[in-house]
Amino acid sequence: MCGIAGFASPAVLPGTRPAVITGMLSRIRHRGPDEAGYYLDDGVAMGTVRLAIVDLASGAQPMSDSTERYWICFNGELYNHIELREELTGLGRQFRTRSDTEVVLQAWIQWGRSCLSRFNGAFAFAVRDALTDELLIARDRYGKRPLFYADRPDGFLFASEMKAFHAHPGFSFELDPHELKSIYGIWTPLPDRTPFKGIRQLPPGSLLTRRDGRTELHTYEELAVDAPPFTGTAADAAALVRDTLRTSVEVRLRSDVEVGVYLSGGLDSSIVARLATDLSSHEVRTFSVEFEDRALDESSSQHEVARHLGTRHSSIAISTADVVENFPAAIHHAEVPVFRTALVPMYLLSRHVRDAGIKTILSGEGADEAFLGYSLFRETMLRADWHRLTAEERGERIAVLHPELAHFGPEHRVHVSGLLSQFTEERLDGLFSHELRYQNGRFAQRLLKDRAEPFADLLALVRDTPGYAALSPTQKAQWLEFKTLLAGYLLSSQGERMGLAHGVENRCPFLDPAVVRAAALVNLRFDDGWEEKAVLKEAFRDVLPAGPLTRRKQPYRAPGSTAFREHRPDYLELVLSEHELGQIDGIDPVFAKRLVDKVLAAEGPEVSTKEDQAFIHLLSTAVLNRQFVMDRGEDMRIPQAAEMNLTTVIDRRHGSPLLTGGKR
């Protein structure tokens, strides 16, 4: 795992280019604390900060082929690098290291862009062809690793985190009100967007090429959530799921350092921990979050699973004060407004894991999206079948729809039924499954001066996606979850970005392409979808304790606006006056101030879910504005750019590599 950054910018004065690339890398130093290096040639620079996990001794970057025509900076892990290395060796490719980075480079040289569909991994990388002066950047199919770029008149910039752009001459951040509208609406940026003007994400499953000052964006693999009917038995389906997951965990345990497991106590992380203990030759260490608020705490379930599996378990207790104190740091790493504080405990957990000496962690992300684990999928089926069900059948399904939510309890059944009945016909083309959820997003739009349709860009995306219209309502819900909340929040803001803030790499066995395909094959083939992840449970019924198999899913939650009402941090001043709110581009200071006053004066249930989410959106936007647009992160004790030990410098202006181990 690493962080990468670079530019193709002839406008940057030659004498300043080393300082610019070094400055970019220093701002993402947390991603790769082990070593750093850069490549510089004719206005093109690219570099890496490395977290050494595979081939610790000889995997330094940037790396070239033997001819020094091709150069690569690689962020991530290629889990099938052993198999690909054997295939490439058979084709005559020669290797000088054991690293997966060199496998990626040799695969690119051998197969070109078709190599990308062969990769099973979590990655973002850049390759430069020094002969043709072509620069390529690519990202994995599910968006597990971030990659941002800015195509400007004075050059092209890319980096694993946008904060690296601060070091480029003349660059400044500016919030984009149009993108805030979409982010507030769907809780996350669209796959190719960011909250800042002029900065884009490389979408999952995409590559971008730049040559002669022109860029072209390509999709190398579309997301597939449909599959032909599974022809085996229910037992065959369970065996398929079990075997593919076992293989997925096995390849993700490939590492030259110890691999731990995040254990929430739920089904998905318990399966991962079970397989890790089966496949590891040593005691497995598991890690989790505990909450002082018992309504949020799942520690009893975590300890039950850890005892059953015999793992060495460690947890960290989180208070509301911890959430408030660390919120600005988490936002600094997330680089996007968020609608809840759940990323903060993950930020603190990754620090705990790092302090325990672990660099690599397995987690259960992606299981709910692949195996229809969310209540959203059952709600979609209920609303789609509403007019074919009797009143009694509707009531039975409502009773098990959201058992974790008090306002779905028996005393509210009539109200819930009336609410759902209003969303049985599609209003937003292609977004039927999410229309009820998006009502909260419509409320958040009132924070903005521009209150035009917040879902226009998402509507255009699904309209223009080949094959989307033919999907079932449930499959469309899956597609939307993969493309929005999973990639844009769970894998990034709450996942990868919080882990790499402390140099901890997250690996997701449920997001192996074979596992996602297996889920598509068996979903709803042997059950009606109302038993949460029925095939997945059956596949591991004999090897897990009863808790994860029988307990209804408890969504991971963290303290919301109540925490800020109780502790009143100094940075709350950013949203306490219309003057301060007026400094945030696009925000309506009058409505925003009214919302803040209500939330901070309220007691408990007086704040609705939509108001709570809107408040967190607003506060995180204000913090982001201070840190990035105003460039005043020091006001919130955000560390400034770190010094680095540059182990590899390739400066071709001098005709040959210059190697240094000194600090820059």
How are the SSEs ordered, and which strands pair?
Layout: E1 2-8, H1 17-26, E2 35-41, E3 44-50, E4 63-64, E5 70-78, H2 81-90, H3 100-111, E6 121-129, E7 134-139, E8 148-152, E9 155-159, H4 177-186, E10 200-201, E11 206-211, E12 214-219, H5 234-252, E13 259-262, H6 267-279, E14 285-291, H7 299-309, E15 312-318, H8 320-334, H9 343-355, E16 360-362, H10 367-370, H11 375-384, H12 391-399, H13 413-421, H14 438-444, H15 456-464, H16 473-490, H17 492-500, E17 505-507, H18 513-522, H19 534-539, H20 546-550, H21 561-567, H22 578-581, H23 589-601, H24 609-629, E18 646-651
Helix pairs in contact: 2-3, 5-6, 5-18, 8-9, 8-17, 8-21, 8-24, 9-17, 11-16, 14-24, 16-17, 23-24
Brief characterization of the structure:
This protein has 664 residues and is of the alpha/beta class. It is built from 24 helices and 18 strands. The protein is globular.
Largest sheet: 7 strands, mixed
Radius of gyration: 24 Å
Task: Please state how the strands of the largest beta sheet are arranged side by side.
Answer: 10-8-9-1-3-2-18
User: Outline, from the CA principal axes?
Assistant: globular
pLDDT averaged residue by residue: 93
Number of strands: 18
Low-confidence stretches: 656-664
Number of helices: 24
Question: How much beta, percentage-wise?
Answer: 15-25%
* Measured distance between first and last alpha carbons: 22 Å
Question: Which structural class do the helices and strands define?
Answer: alpha/beta
Q: What level of helicity do the residues show?
A: 25-40%
